[in-house]
Amino acid sequence: MNQLLTNILQKRRFKNLRPDFSTKYKNLKRLGKEPFLLPFWITINKQIEAAFLPIPPAGFLSLPAIKNTMFVNPDDRWLQAELDFIKTNPGDRFPNLPREDWVGQPILLPHHRTSANTVHHLYHMYRFQKEVAVKLGAINSVVEWGGGYGNMAKLWYRHSPGVTYTIIDSALFSTIQWLYLTSTLGPSCVNLLDSKNARLKEGAINLVPLALLKQTTINGDLFISTWGLSESSMAAQDYVLKKKWFNSQHLLLGYQKSSNDLPTASRLGQIARDDSAKIIDIDFIPGNYYAFK
């Protein structure tokens, strides 16, 4: 399908799904309390909620609360380091830089047809592939803690169609992921767990709200959390450790040094190190690290 037709289809899906956002979100909130959220994220969620309700704006990726917490600044000098790496270490099925999708109206990089966030997420994927020497296509199931608006899941699913991909997140972000991923990939690829009887679906992107986490059986080949788990509570980190990274053999973690807002960030690196993960300084983003296994 050419890009023009893809954009038309995505706009049609988004237009049809957009009015249902508030109802979906209210239903998820009724599922119960959400464990593990730090005050930092509770505050941000309230800001995003106010901007998305009653109907999400078409250009929601430009909202300050989204841009400031989960969107890479295209002016950052270190973005060039990621671009250079991608161009010299291409994936096994992707072009160097996939064309960006229309949904959310992301800002495109000058001289490219993609966004800074897509570059950033591809860099995570390709860096994992290089450091662990495991082809992305060899991963059959992924568990991601904190999936943002769903961009990493989208890229991974397009790279490996049929992978079982599970995102664990707050009710608000599960609803945002439902809107974004269903609009970009189509309804057959997305499974939102919205009741206590809901179950994971193989070969789809599963969205698990925190309120349903403890009653949902989740397993993966790879556990991903790019700054999500480092920005969660100590109880969240302990829960994931107790679950043995949801029985995942491989890890792709990004984390930062601890701060007043994020007091347990550095702790995640020590947990990963104790589990034989390789810790790597991200030299072009001081105070940030990868853990690979």
The stretches of 5 or more residues where confidence is low (pLDDT under 50) are: none
Taken together, the total number of domains comes to: 1
The first-to-last residue Cα distance is: 37 Å
CATH homologous group name: Vaccinia Virus protein VP39
* Spatial strand order of the main sheet: 3-4-2-1-5-6-8-7
Q: Strand pairing plus helix content: what structural class?
A: alpha/beta
- Biggest sheet architecture: 8 strands, mixed
Our Rg estimate from Cα atoms comes to 18 Å
The oligomeric state of the chains shown is single chain
Mean pLDDT: 92
Helical content class:
40-55%
Mind telling me the CATH class? Alpha Beta
Number of helices: 11
Shape: globular
What string, H for helix and E for strand, traces the elements in order?
Answer: HHHHHHEHEHEEEHHEHEE
CATH architecture: 3-Layer(aba) Sandwich
Under CATH, the topology is which? Rossmann fold
Quote the beta fraction.
5-15%
Characterize the structure shown.
The structure is a single chain. With 293 residues, the protein is an alpha/beta fold. The chain has one domain (3-60, 134-292): 3-Layer(aba) Sandwich (Rossmann fold), CATH 3.40.50. It is built from 11 helices and 8 strands. The chain has helices at residues 3-17, 21-29, 39-52, 64-70, 78-88, 116-132, 151-159, 171-185, 234-242, 244-247, 265-274; strands at residues 141-145, 164-169, 190-192, 205-209, 222-226, 250-256, 278-281, 288-292. The protein has an 8-stranded mixed β-sheet with strand order 3-4-2-1-5-6-8-7, sandwiched between helices. Strand 7 (278-281) and strand 8 form a beta hairpin. Helix 1 (3-17) packs antiparallel against helix 8 and helix 5 (78-88) crosses helix 6 (116-132). It is globular and about 45 Å long. It starts with a helix and ends with a strand. The model has no long low-confidence stretch (mean pLDDT 92).
